Amino acid sequence: MGHSISRRDVLKGTGASLAALGVGSTLVRPVIAQEAAFTEATDKSQEATRAQRMQWWHAAKFGMFIHFGVYSTIGRHEWVMEDEAWPIGPYTEHAAKFKPALNCPRAWAKLAMQAGMKYMVLTTKHHEGFCNFDTKLTDYCAPKQGPGRDIVREYVEAARGEGLHVGFYYSLMDWHHPDGARCATDEAARRRFVDYTHGLIREILTNYGKIDVLWYDVAWPLDAAGWESEKMNQMVFQLQPEIIVNNRNKLQGDFSTPEQHIVAETNGRAWESCMTLNDSWGYQRADDNWKSSRTIVRNLIQCVRDGGNYLLNIGPKPDGSVPEESVRVLTEVGRWMEVNGDTIYKSDLCQVRRSNYASFTRTGDTLYMHVHFWPGDYVAISGLKAKVNSARLLKTGAEIRFTQDEFQTKFTGLPEKAPDYPITTIAVECDSEPTQDTDFVRKNKPRASV
Ligand code: GLC
């Protein structure tokens, strides 16, 4: 499905970008033919192994995103270099001042683990161009600048130490490299920059053992043909046959990446919603717009209800420590996950969704009603189609009484105070897969007489 579209897009891109680069039309045709054969082969082999490669990821549901780089030392958001139009000189001076504490990623990994996250994705290089890893291709990298060592290596070891899967974020866009913008209009610059980019990706996927996720970001200013994205992915899968890749190098990849919002993909395509804890990815010392643990848990529920993953970000401070508010929120989320984790990890797609104080997940014939505004007394669901056999409070195991007719299912005798925080889950055992039909209720529930 998505793959034939991707192939067409690539082919279109190939012609257009070569034309933009001034390549004569006589040359275009053979290149397109080659590219088509190449793309087909790559698509097929990626597709054939996809279900198996993505198995752990679908089970994982919840991951930690980490934005860490020179921008962290400035503390004004990871886009500061561009948004404030910093001259290159003063910005790169900060690379020398970037001195994170030794093994700071260990605290990130511990926090992720405690929060119930199963994988991590670290910015190996963000748009600023600074490489958190050791590389032969530039001096603008952690071992040769302030950190004096390979941050990515520390991160990989820390994540593995906690039993977490390891992901690498990599920004194609680069505000530091001399060819980072002119590659769009100068073929020699494009050649150099694409070689550099493929070279860096080769290094990160060669030097750290098995890597589970490659998370590309911002492909500006080139298209898939310009980046040679097919070749890029082919190299990636040669180096890491088990890896999964996202869709931000202008190819479909293995999963989609809705950002700062939750929208399910259709046709069974995998998706992961990435989101910040406040309004910034990189450390922004003035951003106090923190989400509550309740919002985070609600978001996580919404993602898994519709078959997606939730990748939640932290932006460590210059020394690598995690902002206190993030620690507090993630600790609360972790406590909730200790009790409610199975309702997340083991969730199947869930059709039930209508309530103004609860959201839902489902495992087989069990419906989990996650009540975020606890009214005490009773809660009710409209139009539940399956017959309820029993219900209990997940936190305490206490049985809950209920009544049910074709319109309303009502759980009664609830404690006045919410038994769990920030969300209380009621496990509802049904006689078949629970679904909801609120249209039926609207149309058929007896109305008053006039
Ligand atoms: C955007 C931003 C970037 C952030 C990313 C995370 O593309 O440019 O700063 O890293 O989203 O999804």
From TrEMBL:
Gene Ontology CC: lysosome
SUPFAM superfamilies reported in the protein's UniProt record: (Trans)glycosidases (SSF51445)
Site feature: May be important for catalysis: C274
Known function: Alpha-L-fucosidase is responsible for hydrolyzing the alpha-1,6-linked fucose joined to the reducing-end N-acetylglucosamine of the carbohydrate moieties of glycoproteins.
One MF term in the entry's GO annotations: alpha-L-fucosidase activity
Protein name: alpha-L-fucosidase
Membership in a protein family: Belongs to the glycosyl hydrolase 29 family.
Domain Glycoside hydrolase family 29 N-terminal: 42-342
Species of origin: Alloacidobacterium dinghuense
Alphabetized Pfam families for the sequence: Alpha_L_fucos
EC class (word): hydrolase
Taxonomy of the source species: Bacteria, Pseudomonadati, Acidobacteriota, Terriglobia, Terriglobales
Keyword hit for Iron: no
Superkingdom to which the source organism belongs: Bacteria
EC number annotated for this UniProt entry: 3.2.1.51
InterPro entries: FUC_metazoa-typ, GH, Glyco_hydro_29, Glyco_hydro_29_N, TAT_signal, TAT_signal_bac_arc
